[in-house]
Amino acid sequence: MTAISNIGVVGLGSMGLGMARSLLRAGLPVWGYDIREDVRQAFSAEGGQPVSGLSDSAALSDLLFIVVVNAAQTEQLLFGEQGIAARLRPGSVVIACATISAAAARRISGRLAEHQVLMLDAPISGGAVRAEAGELTIMASGPQAAFERAQTALAAVAAKVYRLGEEAGQGSQIKLVNQLLAGVHIAAAAEAMAYGIRQGCDPEALYEVISHSAGNSWMFENRVPHLLAGDYRPRSAVDIFVKDLGLVLDSAQEAVFPLPLTASAHQMFKQASASGLGREDDIAVVKIFPGINLPAAANEEI
Predict the structure, then answer these.
(1) What are the phi and psi torsion angles at 166 (to 5°)?
(2) What is the reported pTM?
């Protein structure tokens, strides 16, 4: 296992910041970049090393976690105007964590190989709370040498790291299956709560019973408390599932494979986004249902 002298985390959002903190707790040398100055300052206050530009820091890095939203942002960082891929030292490892298509993962990996840079196609799951605790699930594929070089850092941010082969794309494809289930479960949880509330059920009692019954899911148990608190601050936003379920459907379209539940859930999230809810927590999809009185936030009058 090769010693690590410098790790970068690009994207200090709800997931990336938790990952950067986990790396710091493990005693690893880590710098962080985000376009938001206040986020960089917060990271600095916690003992991290914030950077305002990427080129020089990237040139000194052994590992680079890219924790952004999509393939376009990942490619822009690596090959766009800043072009940090050309600045990375040969043999360094890019750990691409965004939810992207398998085809995009293969494309990015191929372009990095032209610079003699390794890539782990390593989408993440678990949400902000598990990111903060260093307990993410990582679905990774890539060269054995990349896994060996990244082993210590991956152990710091994840409870489970699945090695899914040596070719980029395999990690991303399994992540899309996960997102299919996650999006459908959130949409189903929203529909079930809306239906129960409309039929006169007490929301708190409804949550308590279902979370201890056969109808429960991880997403129901995790997201419905946000609804009960009237708290729609985005841990994972509605627009994330507009994007991710769109990726799932695009890949199924290419394979001429039917995904009726995914298509229905995608339409629900698109309706919520079109109604101005795109930046709210994904359980805000419940607001598309008419004629129900949802619980209000504690500081709001009902």
Answers:
(1) -100, 0
(2) 0.91
Class of domain 173-288: mainly alpha
Q: How far apart are the first and last CA of the chain?
A: 58
Shortest CA distance to 286 belongs to which of 300, 301, 302, 269? 269
Are 7-168 and 173-288 the same fold in CATH? no
Catalytic residue status for 270: no
Domain ranges for the chain: 7-168, 173-288
Catalytic residue among 160, 175, 243, 287: 175
Encode pLDDT of 154-209 as tens digits.
999 999 999 999 999 999 999 999 999 999 999 999 999 999 999 999 999 999 99
Left (φ > 0), alpha (ψ -120 to 50) or beta: where does 272 sit?
Answer: alpha
